[in-house]
Design brief:
255 residues; alpha/beta; two-stranded parallel ribbon
Length: 255
């Protein structure tokens, strides 16, 4: 089984690639949480994978929430691996995840990283199409290598994207994420067509459609930016900063 979280498709693409390579199945954390599914039977599983993006060099809040409730029936030391997707570097996210899994009673045997298209528009511009395609093409041999190691259940730290002083990066920047996931900066323009997609895909149920327009009903969210990137008419913005910074959905993932 492969547990994954994805907002714009990068980690979904990785999870499905691994599932195909290992004849495995995927479990989307958003759907598991909505269905209040936290207990799974691992007795027939050879491998247990976790695939997720890194946020501020750390673990997305939805992943932490899920792991605090996760119970794996029949876990007896099966191979457990982690794949982190990132725009530039993973920092100390791998070590953070290691500790979270340990709290669940799981031992992490191997961890990997895959550089993907950075799409956090509050802090930067989305690369142009040519640059995006180059980044996605470059990820393919990395995915093949990860698949090979996972198939043979190789152990070790294969995260080559940690960057310099990874623990320091996470210690400095992750608190900004953990404490600052406010929904107040989201704005909606008159281009909104009231399709309800943002409400449907929000992983923490922070959006409600009121009189045909999205309203953020919770003070904090995961900060995944899925609502912004996947709005079909680009009516959702992060303050004014995101208006000219582009939008991104992984074209190789089926969302």
């Amino acid at each position: 089984m492969i547990f994954y979280f994805s907002a714009t498709g990068n980690s979904k693409y990785v999870a499905e690639h691994l599932a195909a390579a290992t004849d495995d199945h995927t479990i989307f954390l958003r759907d598991a949480i909505r269905g209040r599914r936290y207990q799974f039977d691992a007795s027939r599983e050879k491998r247990i994978g976790f695939v997720m993006p890194t946020y501020f060099f750390g673990v997305p809040s939805i992943v932490t929430f899920f792991l605090e409730k996760l119970r794996l029936k029949g876990y007896e030391g099966q191979y457990v691996y982690l794949v982190l997707t990132c725009g530039a570097s993973t920092g100390g996210a791998g070590g953070q995840m290691d500790r979270l899994l340990e709290d669940c009673g799981l031992k992490l045997n191997a961890r990997f990283s895959v550089p993907m298209v950075d799409n956090y528009v509050p802090l930067g511009q989305i690369p142009d199409q040519e640059a995006r395609e180059r980044k996605l093409d470059a990820a393919e041999p990395c995915l093949e290598e990860i698949s090979r190691v996972v198939r043979t259940m190789g152990e070790g730290d294969y995260d080559r994207c940690q960057g310099s002083t990874p623990g320091v990066k996470t210690a400095l920047f992750y608190p900004l994420y953990a404490l600052g996931r406010s929904t107040r900066p989201f704005v909606v323009t008159d281009e909104c067509i009231g399709c309800g997609l943002c409400q449907e895909i929000c992983p923490c149920g922070a959006i409600n459609i009121v009189e045909g327009m999205p309203v953020w009903s919770k003070k904090k969210c995961v900060r995944c930016m899925g609502c912004l990137h996947r709005c079909p008419v680009q009516a959702i913005h992060w303050k004014k900063a995101s208006e000219s910074r582009g939008r991104y959905v992984n074209p190789r993932a089926e969302l």
